[in-house]
Fold each of these.
Amino acid sequence: MANGAILPRESGISDRPMRDAVPFISPESLQIEIELPHKGKMIGMGIPKGITVIVGGGYHGKSTLLKALEQGVYNHIAGDGREYVVADATGMKIRAEDGRSILHTDISLFINHLPAGQDTVDFSSENASGSTSQAANLIEAMEAGAELLLLDEDTSATNFMIRDKVMAKLVSDEKEPITTLLRHIRGIYKTMGISFIIVVGSSGDYLSVADLVLQLDHYKVKDVTKEAKEICEQCQIAGQYAEKEVCMPEFSRKLKPIKSARRKLKSMGTDTVLIDRESIDVRYLEQLSESGQTTALAYMMGWILDHVTKEEDIQEFIENMYKLIERKGMAAVIPANYSAGHPVLPRKQELYACLSRYRSAKIVKKYM
């Protein structure tokens, strides 16, 4: 994140930089220098791999910082203010999404021993709860190759993020199907090398698993890692959640053909993809930044459904699809006579997410 970057936007419906905003300045302890071919030396904040926790009072800029990092997967035009805010290109924002469908996803890392005895290694639901949807969103992001996951306490399911000692005394672990992210976060990083950036305002236990703690104070960023570690020692929570390898899910979903004489494909803003009469709700894919991406998602979903003629491994099929696009351009997957919109190539992560939310998709679990 370059010094001088303007992170806040003009309004919730504008991408223009806010006037008279406080420019971003890196804490000295995190300052790095990068040599750019046509710009020379750039100085700013480098966030290392690992688990980063962002704290601070309400309205001090925590979510604004995270939002800038979310959009750092894209290049920005001159004058945007975030031209040199750059994040891992595979980074995925993860949130709760009540009511979404889940299709044959292994969420057993976080959800187990459901009262009805439902299998969470091969889990499906037409109406997922907040915690279950967030668990599925995280696992599907891993399946899509995300190496950075971004979360905000405000848009997360509380019981997915934390479970305090008082509640654990009343409801024992044996009676609680949900294993919180807090318990597994260090193990996920150790086992898969996936980094996390998490905004928290009240979940103090996350300080104990953090490699880096940033505090927002009147829109200025401070490195308070040392102070956070001292507080964890005083509160006797340091080392409570050990970094141990976890048993990661197998990404072994397959897609079966869906027969259709003719498909109607359409999109509505950045919220909805329409396939025939079914709406795919993509409004919680917060990194979709323009309607052209949902237009492309509609056409790409149609291409997938037209070209899956036998049972296909989803990871392999989508990987090959993007290799085709690299060789021949988007014209390879967008119909020549497309009728509406200006398609803009979405990332693999959003295509995975769109397919996973398509209730009519014939997704099955492939057992090894």
Amino acid sequence: MIQPLAMITVAGLAIAIIIIFAIFRKIKFRSKMMKLEKEKEDAMQELRGMLRSAGGLNNLLTDLRSMPQDKRQETLALFQKIKDLTDAIRN
């Protein structure tokens, strides 16, 4: 027959393990969110630099038409990356 003290000890260990896993999962989630925030901030800094050099959003959008294809794709990819990172952070 199982001793009541042994049952309590096993239950306590199980609860402790569950709590530890929950804490690790939360830490992992927070580090992932911080990484996404950092990536988004880097992309936003790059976009701000592009906006400054172009003289504003309207000028940047106008410049997109006259940009070489590779530079245009790079700029549009940056906009898409910022959108994707924002969506990932929201969800």
Amino acid sequence: MKILGINAFGHDTSAALVIDGKLIAAVEEERLNREKSTRAFPHLSIEYCLKEANIEFEDVDYITYAYQPYLWLTHRFLYHQLRFFPQALGELKYVKRMISKFMFLKSNIQKELKTNKPIILLKHHDAHMGSTFLVSPFEEAAILTLDGLGEYETSVQAVGKGTSIKRLDHILFPNSLGSMYACISHFVGYTAELDEGKVMGLAAYGDASEYYNDFKKLVKLKKDGTFQLDLSYFEYHKKEIPG
């Protein structure tokens, strides 16, 4: 079975090809079009993966995408708007853009690729877990994902065994270490969803003890190993971070 995975309609677009359970090729579009953090549809990445496998696009059985938009709509948007109304109304521009991009996700992909091949939409954090554990040398492992936001999850804890992954727990937006990092990157003068790596690199030259107590106010580590943010310091759950 030949499965083509794509990341599109957002930053750092990419593609990967799996054949009979084995990863054959994977590449980010920026490596090929030379545009940092490109948002271009990954046509070049798809072409590269197919060439590496010496197959044609017609040979692909399934296309996968790591996002389930209706989960985002029901859990992240509707629940979040009700919970933080009216402050979250500042997100409406972001919400409108997300709806235009993702509510017709399958048809948009088919239109770009000029195909009617079946498209499977995966939960975002399931794709994160699969892309690490299933290509690792481990038969069994603990798995932890952390990012800004999937559909509504910001972290998932799971156990991988063989070719299966069992979820144990998750953390929901707006408690998000990724969003916190993006906010701090923006606060010190960098661009969110682009320059976090620069901030991470610069951190090695700083004195962690100087701001340790400040960060303890921002993030509370709970006894069960999860975390909770003090949202009074942030606005990312009320309006989009400039980026």
